[in-house]
Records
---
Amino acid sequence: MPVTQKCQYALRALFELARRKGDGPIPAGGIAERQAIPKRFLEVILHQLRQGGFVDAQRGKEGGFYLARPAETVTVGEVIRFMDGPISPVDCHRERPGHDCPLRGGCVFREMWEEARAALEKVYDARTLRDLLEEDRRREDMAAVPAYVI
C-alpha cells in the first residue's frame, strides 16, 4: 500500500522543521509555502504530529512549530507507522480487525509480501530526518557546482 498523501505531507513538514531548526518556531504558513502543502490540511497534520510527540508549538505573535525531538532520532518508518499504521506492500497483508483473507493459511503470495514488507521497513527505519537533511545539502552542493562544457 503506498504511503498516503497525508503521510507524505507530514514527512515534508517534519523535514522543513528540521531544515529550519535554530530559526525559532516556524508558522504553519511558512511550512505550507515552502513544502507546497495546503495550509488547512497542514494544520490538521501538525496537530496530529504534536499529539504523537514529533512536534511542539509555541503560541503567540512569535509562535509556530518546532521539532520536539532531535532530527537524528526521528525515522521515516516511525512517522509512516504513526500516520498510516503498519507498513505493508499490500492491503491484504495488514492485520486489521474484521479483515480475514480466505487464503490466509495457504496463500502462495504471503511469503513474498512478508519479504517486501521487511525490505520496506528496513529502508524506512534506516532513514532519519538528519539523513534527509544531509541528502538535501549534498543535492544543493551539486547544483551549486558550475558545469564547464565546451
---
Amino acid sequence: MSKPTGRGPDDVVSPQQLRLLYAIGRLDRGIQRELEQGLRPLGLSPHQYATLTILRARSGLSNAQLARRAYVTPQAMSQVLASLITAGLISRSPSDDNQRVLETRLTPKGLEVTDRCDLIANEIENRMLEGVPQEDRHSLLATIRACVQRINAGLPGT
C-alpha cells in the first residue's frame, strides 16, 4: 500500500513552507473561536460585538452601512440588529434626512455591554500577544493596517 502524497490541513509544515495567508487564516479562525467562547456568557456573538463596536465609533448608521462595515449581508445584519434590539442594546429611529432609513444607536445598556465585551477581547489579545514586546506589537499593527489597505479591505484609521 502506498503512502498518500498530499498534505492534510494539520500536517506539520516547516516554517519556510508555511504560507502567510494560511497562518493569518488560522489566526482569524482561532480569534473567532476565542471570541465566541468569551462572549457566550454575555449572550452575544462576534458579529453582534462587532456591530456594537461599530456603533460606538459611529452612531446613526443604517442597516446597509453596518452590513458593509461588519462584512455581512444586509439580511444577516437585519438578524443581528433584531437580536440587539430585543436585548435592549440598540435603538432604531427614522433618519432626519430620509424617514425610510432607520438609524441605529447604542443604548446606555448597549454601551455598558460593549465595554464588558472589550474586556474579553483585551484578554484574548493580551494572551495572543504574550511575550511580544510593545514595539513589535506597534510594528505588527502597522504592517497589518498596510496590508488591509493594499487589498482595499477597509479598517478604521486607514
---
Amino acid sequence: MATIEVTETSPNSFSVTVHGSQVTTHQVSVKPEYAQQLLNTPHTTTELVAASFSFLLDRESNSSILRSFDLSVIERYFPEYPKAISRYLK
C-alpha cells in the first residue's frame, strides 16, 4: 500500500510525494471553485488532494500519474471522479 504525503507549497498549489514500489513526486494545482464543488463536507483542500491520489492509486500505479496537473484533469480520464471522491474523504 502506498503512502501519500501532501504539502501545500503556495495557495492552491501542492507537492505530493507517493511512496509506492517507487517514490514519485507530483505538483498539483487546485482552483478554489473546483475544490468547493467537490467538498460538500468539512474537509480541507489538502485532504481533497490526498483523497484524489488514493482514488488515482486504486486505478493506476504512482509512476503512471501525471507529474504536474490541475486536479480537474482527473475528471477527463476518470469521469466517475466527482461522484466517487466523497468515498475517499475520511
